[in-house]
Amino acid sequence: MTKSGNRDVPMAKQVPFRREHHGDTFVDPYEWMRDKQSQDVRDYVAAQNRLCEERNKPLASLRDTLFEEFKSHVQETDMSVPTRMDDYWYFTRTQQGKQYAVQCRMPIDGPDDWDPPQVDASGEPGGMPGEQIVFDANRESEGHDFFRIGGMDISKDGRWMLYGVDVEGDERYDFRIRDLATGEELPEVFEGISGACFTPDAHWVFYTVLDDAWRPCAVFRHRVGTPVESDVEVFREHDERFWAGVGMSFDERSIVIGTGSKTSTEVLMLPVDDPEGEFQAFIPREDDVEYDVSFACFEGAGENGSDIPVAVVYHNALNPNFEIDVIDMHGHEPPYRLGEGVCVAAGSPYGCEQGDEVEPGASAKPIGAAYSNPGNPAILQGAHGLGIEGIAIHRNFVTMSYRAESLPHLAVMTKRDAAEDFLARRPWRFTELVPPALEDDWDVDESVDEVNEERAAVWHAVGGMEDDTAGPHAVRDASETIDDFVRAQGNGSAVHGASRKAMTSSDGATADAMSGETRRLYSIGAGGNPSYDTPRMRYSFSSYTRPGELHDVDPATGEDRLLKRATVLGDFNPRDYMERRVWIMARDGERIPVSLVWRRDVPTCDSAMFVTGYGAYEISSDPGFSVARISLLDRGVLYAVPHIRGGGEMGRAWYEQGRRLNKRHTFEDFVDATAALQDAGLANPSRTVADGGSAGGLLMGAVANLAPERFAGIEADVPFVDALTSILDPSLPLTVTEWDEWGDPLHDAEVYRYMKSYTPYENAPELADDPRVEVFPRIFITTSMNDTRVLYVEPLKWLARLQGAGVDAIAKIEVEAGHGGISGRYKQWMELAYENAWCLGVMGIAH
């Protein structure tokens, strides 16, 4: 042990290890930590955990307070809204004091029973007449420090359950088959697999196995009641860039194998009534083409009332932001090709690498330019950053999900109208679903009630046709990105952003009249619709300030029913909080959306700020409610989410501009957004804490190196900070599959040099005389020894390098957990209280 200031810090030994590639040599003194079983590694982990506990002792009271606050807002004994699947209503119960949920069910009253039963939410699991406990994770987890369900499938008759559990945190699941009538389990066990599914009759199980690199690589077939040793391999993916998975099609007529890399996919199918047959590709694989397929039917829409079977194909073969094609399969045998059929919706090619193949000059246009396509539904005309995300066809309705203006959207129409539009080859008459605003709240727009009244009248008149006179976005509050906001730099009030005066009013709220801001932020999506026959469509939504709600809507009439609103106990009132999305200009001129959340009665001036981001894999950081966030907001913290490139908020181009040789945009966007808010006077750098996990942890390490003066503290959860070392080694878990995301530095010298320029571990301060050390933020790292996605060795090496340079860095290292951290809701709340207490402590908030 050596001293660092007045604190004992366990300094890691240094054992030089040479890494040589493309004429470059890097000497890594901490690569010895990769030996997980060595006593030196175990001792180092134990010493770092002791240091972390010692450093955080002064925050013990705050941690306890935060934990109790979390509990005080949660309805601990609760249940979900029952969802019908086949002949049962399924629902989940939680109970006060129990770590895990209990899965339950009740039989339906008859084939026309589509109204969920009234169940006592405060009752004991299994206590209602006819209620059956399907799976009690509290009982199943007994004797295990870690427990996670890896999948659950139930036969069509409701008798047999196939389920998998992980008790190590390494994402290898043991699957078993249970007789729900007797509780007995069959002798066969599928050990250490990735996932599994039943055929509807439960006579067969198809499951996916992993290779040594933790890649789901092959699918096996098992006949129930026979030894697992006699199972047959039915598919193997030999290309190490690709993963494989297996499941049932929505109509349960086909067993489906999906295989895909980061940029290409393929779907193979086998009829359920021929489980021992050969899988066939629906459409053969093409490089850099992603597609998916589902099957449905336009009942009675054909000649003489015949049915029209259709294939619904979602793909990017002709449009980088995807399109949806519907193929009439009546008399059309395979093979099929991408692009045939009727195009229902197509995304914007603007700013995309392959955009010019759709429209000349499209790749050079701004990502957020308004896009119109005469073949698209009316609600998509003029959308900005339009990406098509999917479609689902049920017996009575059709839903479509898409992204525009950096937010998710959901649209619906009747099946009858969809059939008419399909046969007439005209744009489909979707209507966008907009969640109801809070009465008498800041998010109420006077035009919303008028638009809703107008929509209801139109809905009744033409069965879902949106009135063109209302405008395609009349029901939304998202507007054009704001030019005057980005022009504010240079006037003495802001850099890459807006003046504080422009963004705040006397009560601390963002000025409602500010051009270009998005006032209503929410995530919305169809959910809880597993049955093809359901007459009403369920959807859910939530925002940063509004707890989640589950609704159902009648697509024929527009009647919307609230089924459940998440209960937040205590004195919580969503009207006490504000949320806005504003746009800042990054250093290369791109406009970046930033979500802001704060308590309404706390002026957003020189605030403590919690800023978080991800920016990878085309994953969008969409609005969502968090009980834990309330504790931050109530203490005057400004919560900020820069929606940086590398994510998918503005469609495929947003992703492309933040991956591979464009990856530095991700880090620069985050720094520029943080700087804009600070330079506008909204937040104080000395009280700003940043947070990100996994690929977002790489982001944290990169911005700490890039702009250490902008952050007082950084929390990096399971951080991917030694990215170059990992991506260079194809024997490590997931490495080869990641080359499409980050580039291949093993075989490409340009990629190697580019990654080396930003990878956090290699660019962090190494010596105390590095000038960055004086302004470097405090660092708090979390990691897990059983993590298979980001190996523990990456954050440990980063920690050792930072501590060696004199940076104030500590780590909390879980011994019994994986990439997602510990399991059990109370344990997770305690963990979050631990992390948030550290963040608040750095901000100078200790109460």
UniProtKB/TrEMBL annotation:
Enzyme class: hydrolase
PROSITE patterns xref list: PRO_ENDOPEP_SER
GO biological process assignments: proteolysis
Ranges for domain Peptidase S9 prolyl oligopeptidase catalytic: 624-844
Keywords, alphabetical: Hydrolase, Protease, Serine protease
GO molecular function annotations of the record: serine-type endopeptidase activity
Keyword Protease in annotation: yes
EC number: 3.4.21.83
Keyword Transmembrane listed: no
Domain spans labelled Peptidase S9A N-terminal: 11-294
Listed InterPro entries: AB_hydrolase_fold (IPR029058), Pept_S9_AS (IPR002471), Pept_S9A_N (IPR023302), Peptidase_S9_cat (IPR001375), Peptidase_S9A (IPR002470), Serine_Peptidase_S9A (IPR051543)
Pfam families the UniProt entry points to: Peptidase_S9 (PF00326), Peptidase_S9_N (PF02897)
Domain of life: Bacteria
Family note: Belongs to the peptidase S9A family.
Protein name: Protease II
Organism: Bifidobacterium merycicum
